[in-house]
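Posting for a labmate who doesn't have an account.
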Amino acid sequence: MTLQYSGWRKSRHSQPNGGCVEVGRSTSRTIGVRDTKAQGDSPILEFTRSEWAAFTRRLHDRA
């Protein structure tokens, strides 16, 4: 089954050349991450809400 995602947002850390990622949410409330260079045809990494929270927390810890 392929989930539908909406509300895609680009990272605030996007590169001017389009090298960035987008984050969206599915109807089942999972978080999807895709590469913007593929213009909507990129594979989507899927996170549960708790996985996403752990992932972003780890990113902030490293900053």
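Reply:
Got it, the structure tokens are right above this. Residues 18 and 39 are 10 Å apart (CA to CA).
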